[in-house]
Amino acid sequence: MYLFNRSITINVRSDDEQTVTVDGFLLDTHHELCLTLGVDLKSNTITSAKGQFCRVPHTECEQSQQLINNLIGVNLNHNVRKQIQVAVGLNYGCTHITDLTLECVKGLLQARFRLMHLTMQEDEIKVLVQQYLEGSCMYYK
């Protein structure tokens, strides 16, 4: 018997050459959260943020939904986790929105690698990916 389950889905779509939209969904035994982020690729900054709490375990949790607007302006180049925690998490926020936002950022990173294949040669991509992911796992040691 399962006592708990959680699914997180991230979809990244290209709006144009300069912006993408990231849709994140978190569904578990107690929560159903949706998050949509607009990201400027040149500055690597969140330019829009919308979300909805469809199901939460406590009525107080709904107050955290308004914090999603704080994600606008977060720069994804440095101290991403800290910026996101300050924007939507910690004592007055929601750890689930923090987690979902971080998963959206990870999805965006993967999408950026995919975008490279549309604009760069394979040998250029390989060098950049190797530099970026060096030390992150066994393959890139």
Structure report:
It contains three helices and four strands, in the order E-E-E-E-H-H-H. The protein has a four-stranded antiparallel beta sheet, with helices on one face. It starts with 5 loop residues before the first strand and ends in an 8-residue tail after the last helix. Helices cover 33% and strands 28% of the residues.
Q: Which terms would index this structure?
A:
141 residues, alpha+beta, Enolase-like, domain 1, 4-stranded antiparallel sheet
Summarize the topology.
Blueprint: E1 6-14, E2 19-28, E3 32-40, E4 45-55, H1 80-88, H2 95-119, H3 122-133
Antiparallel strand pairs: 1-2, 2-3, 3-4
Helix pairs in contact: 1-2
3D shape? globular
CATH top level label: Alpha Beta
Number of discrete helical segments: 3
Mean pLDDT: 93
Enter the CATH topology name.
Answer: Enolase-like, domain 1
Taking all Cα atoms into account, the compactness measure Rg is: 17 Å
Biggest sheet, spatial arrangement of strands: 1-2-3-4
Number of domains: 1
Overall number of strands = 4
Give a short account of the largest sheet. 4 strands, antiparallel
Q: Which segments are poorly predicted (pLDDT under 50) over 5 or more consecutive residues?
A: none
Class based on secondary structure composition and strand pairing: alpha+beta
Alpha carbon gap, first and last residue: 39 Å
Succession of helices and strands: EEEEHHH
Relative strand content: 25-35%
Question: Which architecture does the CATH hierarchy give at level 2?
Answer: 2-Layer Sandwich
